[in-house]
Structures are given as C-alpha cells and as structure tokens.
Amino acid sequence: MKNKAIWITVGVLVIAGVLATFLLYGKQEKQTPTETPPMGRGGRDGANRPVPVTVAIARTGDIDVMINALGTVTARNTVTVKPRVDGQLVRVAFREGQVVKIGDLLAEIDPRSFQSQLDQANGQLMRDQALLANARLDQARYRGLLAKDSIAKQQVDAQEALVRQYEGGVKTDRALVDNAKLQLAFTRVTAPIAGRLGLRLVDTGNMVRATDTGGLVVITQTQPITVIFSIPSDNLTAVINKLQDNQQLTVEAWDRDNKNKLAIGTLLTIDNQIDATTGTVKLKAEFTNSDNALFPNQFVNVHLRIETRHGVTVVPTSASQRGTQGTFFYVVDESKTVSMRPVVLGPISGNIMAVEKGLVPGEKVVIDGADKLRPGAKVEINFPGEKGGESKGSPRGDRSQGDRSRGERPQGERRQNGRNPAAESKGGV
C-alpha cells in the first residue's frame, strides 16, 4: 500500500508539471504578437529616416597632372677611401658622421720609411748631377783640343756619349725623387670628394695596405642628392616632349606613408632603354637636400609633375564610386535626394581629382556614407569637419540629446567617426 501511494503521488506531480509548462508556453505565444517593436534603425520609423552622409561641393580649380612612382634615394657620389701605400695607421683625423670638403685630412700612415726613400733618391740625383757636370767640362776641353787637332775625334765622341748617359741618369733620378715625394704624400689620406663620412672601418695602429678591399671609411655626397625611380613606358612620351621643349619638370619626394613632403627637386635625366621585363624606364631626379631630409638608400614616394590644368571641376577622390556601369558619383539635389551620376574622371593629384564630364561646379557629391545609399534615398547632409550627424531641421529632434546623455552617439556621428578606410586614404577637398 505504501509503495502504491508513492507512485500515485509521483504521477500527480508529473502531470501537474506538464500542465504548468503548456500553460506558460501558451501565455508567452499570446503575448509575443502584441509587443511593440523598438524604435530605431530596425523599426518602421528607422526605415524612413534620412541617411546621414558627408558631402563636398564641386568647385572650379587647378590640378597638377602627376606621375606617381616609388623611388630610391642615391648619393650623388660614393667613395670608399682606401690607403694608397702600405704601412701602419698612426692617426685617424676624422669623426664618424663628419661633413668634409675635398682635401680634408682623414688619416696618416707612418711616413718614416717613405721619407728615407725620398732622401735616398735625392742623394742619387745629386751624385749623378755632379758626374754630369764633370763630364760636360771634359766635353768642352776635348772639343777645344779637337779644334787644334791635338786629340783624336773618337775620344771626343766617347765623351759626348758619356755626357748623354749622365743626362739620362739625372732624368731617371728626378723621376725617382718625384715618385718618392708622391709616396710620402700618400701617407696623408685626404678626402677625394666633399660629403658625409660613414663609420670608421679601421682603427689606429693597424697595418693597412693599398690592396685592402674594405678601406678606411666611406664618403657619400648628399648635397645635392639624387632619387632614381621608374615610370611606365606609356608615360615616357609626355616626359620626353616636356624635356625637348626645355621645360624643367618638378619632382616631389614624399615619405613612405605619402603624408609628409620631404623635398622638391627637378628631373635630371632619363635612362637610355626600357626594361623589357617590367615595361618601365628609369628616371633620375636631383634635390639640393640642404636640410638633409633625404638619406642614401631611403625609399620615397615620387610625384613627377607633368603639367598644371587650370579651371577644371574638382572634387575629393573619396567621391568616386565603382559599379557595373563604371565610375559614378552620388549627387545630392536641392530636395536632399541622391541620384547616381556616371562621370568621366580626369587626372588625380593627392586627395582631389578632376571631373571631365558628368558634373558641374556647385553640385554636392557624397564623400562619406555612400555604402548605405540607393538612388532616390533621402539624406541628412553634413559637411567635412562638422561634429555629429545632426543638422537643422533633423527629424530626430531631442532624441539625439537623450541618446548622448546615456553615452550613445547619434547615427550620423557614429557613421562619421566610424571612418571609411578607403575614403580616409584618399582625403578630401
């Protein structure tokens, strides 16, 4: 009996639990369709709300026709200073990184052995000069005796030959003296060009030889300095035409991020052949580099200015959009409605570009927020630099301020601060 009562109790509890579950589930289903959806981007009101965008006004201006390339800074001249004689390095007379002029003393090699060789050569020269002087005196006497027929002509001829032999010896001695002087001068190592010194490669006290490959120090000429870069062969004709007209083409060197201008120079020369592998040709530009902004082997962005076009329609590069039909802009009319406008683009310079067809000055183009647009959409206009996404007459009213007080940002401000990497890299007007 006791077991039967237990089983009856368990059965009643199970049935009660099942009934309670069904009742609760049915109540929730009845309540769900009657709940009001939250207002916002997912609600009905959010679907009709104008899309916040940033716009720029097309204007008339000037634009540079540029050829952009990557370049490498190269020293105008580079010299590895090597000893020209063998000996012990007794003095290093320069500081690493020092700027030197032609002829500045860099190092000294022990000169004593070379001074001895010079003294020896001078002694040999003096000896042969004395022999030559004596031979010439004998030659003069012999010629006098021959005139009196008091000496054989053969003896006179032998004396004249001896004089010429001593004259040759004296010339040889003088050459040896000059060579000894030159070897002695080579013990003073001087700068062959003006430029900046690198790191010292040999310390004082070491034996150095003229056959050493490493040298003592490297000098690089950085003022002026050059940049070598390559451009497509299709652009070569425009460059050659400008040079043939004796026009000086301006070249700008920018840092690797293309944000800071480092120097302005001029095009120096064009290589004499096109690289068949890459289809490019090398050019060299020269910069005064008075502030040492350019450094040998530095990578830079090069902007070669071909010409300047005046009075063209220009807009920020971030206005450009690509579609199946080609390039287009989102243009905003007076009713704040957007439309897709096919355009023909011209040259691009920095963060602006020219529009050759499809846009007139004064029209508004979308430069940020285009990813949410479709033709015919209403927009809320903001201009670059404005904070927040609100404008006068915004349908949001005070709700934006309420969101801000709770730590939330209006939708337009979220879009503006959530930067579009493509638009940010292109910049704006």
What would the keywords be for this entry?
single chain; 429 residues; elongated; Helix Hairpins; 6-stranded antiparallel beta barrel; disordered C terminus; 6-stranded mixed beta sheet; conserved putative lor/sdh protein from methanococcus maripaludis s2 fold; 8 helices; 20 strands; alpha+beta; 31% helix
Structural notes for this entry:
With 429 residues, the protein is of the alpha+beta class. Among the domains are: 51-63 and 311-426, conserved putative lor/sdh protein from methanococcus maripaludis s2 fold (Beta Barrel); 114-186, Helix Hairpins, CATH 1.10.287.470. The protein has helices at residues 2-31, 44-47, 112-147, 153-185, 236-244, 399-405, 411-417, 421-426, and strands at residues 51-57, 59-81, 87-92, 99-100, 105-109, 188-190, 195-197, 207-208, 217-232, 250-254, 261-270, 280-287, 299-316, 321-323, 326-332, 338-342, 344-349, 352-357, 364-368, 379-382. The strands form three sheets. Strands 1, 14, 15, 16, 19 and 20 form a six-stranded mixed sheet that branches. The chain has a six-stranded antiparallel beta barrel with strand order 2-9-12-11-10-13. Helix 3 packs antiparallel against helix 4 (153-185). The radius of gyration is 45 Å and the shape is elongated. The N and C termini lie far apart (94 Å).
